[in-house]
Amino acid sequence: MRIDVITLFPDFVESCAKVGVVGRARERGLIEIATWNPRDFASDNYRSADDRCYGGGPGVVMMIDPLRKALDSVRRASGSEHGKAIYVSPQGARLDQAKVEALAKRDHLILLCGRYEGVDERFIEHAVEEEISVGDYVLSGGELAAAIVIDAVGRLQDGVLHDAQSAQQDSFSDGLLDCPHYTRPEHHDWGVVPAVLTSGDHAAIARWRMKQSLGRTWLRRPDLLEQAGLDKKQRALLDEFRREHEEKTTHDRDSGSGE
Ligand SMILES: C[S@@+](CC[C@H](N)C(=O)[O-])C[C@H]1O[C@@H](n2cnc3c(N)ncnc32)[C@H](O)[C@@H]1O
Predict the structure, then answer these.
(1) pTM for the whole structure
(2) Which of 14, 24, 75, 90 is catalytic?
(3) Ligand 1 centroid distance, CA of 53 (Å)
(4) Average pLDDT of the chain, as a whole number
(5) Mind spelling out the 3-state secondary structure of 146-170?
(6) How far away, in angstroms, is 97 Cα from ligand 1 center?
(7) What was the pLDDT predicted at 165?
(8) Which of 14, 170, 178, 240 is catalytic?
(9) Domain map (residue ranges) of the chain
(10) 2-164 has CATH 1.10.3470.10 classification
(11) Is 142 left (phi over 0), alpha (psi -120 to 50) or beta?
């Protein structure tokens, strides 16, 4: 996969894309990432890529032409003649795992990072295919949002993760939150690893994990559960989890340990 990022802060994106899973994927040639600075396409000696807002008010806006020329260069370099950008923006559709999976299947992404008040609306109308938000809050620039997209999409590329199964077990991939995980030591002042995980009984472990995953989703994200379309076996496991949870809550309350 190739990802081109149009940004006023290429170093920011480069430093995020250099480390961890994405960094290793780049080194191994599994993902290609290039950055493009609109200032390199400015028409004046000041390398201006922004100007004041029409209508007055605070702040500046990113200008059309440096962005347009940057996009033209991306198109030439990547061979995608009509490629449009994905603008990371608080006004876009909120990113979720389903969207990440759809983006991960593409061969090429062009990410546009805004700064200041954002990007001239005419550029968005003509050169942006969609807007993606990383959440209902405002960042000072799109670089962090682009780094999120790159990381989430990058780790799903074939051969990037050591164990491809680990992505399939992560939260959201089956519409549920992931189960709890434990590592050594088995016995610790802060608790003991659930016995089933050290039993070697793979069927029992899979059952326990599914039950925890369902229970966590019920406790923390009931909205996901409504859309998950549970089968009969999953519904039975969730009922079991709820019964046990209610018994524990009652017990803790009666013994005063929940306070
Ligand atoms: C200060 S923000 C501009 C916010 C804009 N005036 C608005 O209220 O919609 C500057 C840039 O940060 C990026 N950004 C801010 N919040 C974001 C979010 N939640 N998701 C994705 N990008 C975001 C966008 O690229 C945006 O152009």
Answers:
(1) 0.93
(2) 90
(3) 16
(4) 95
(5) HHHHHHHHHCCCCCCCCCHHHHHHC
(6) 20
(7) 67
(8) 170
(9) 2-164, 187-255
(10) no
(11) alpha
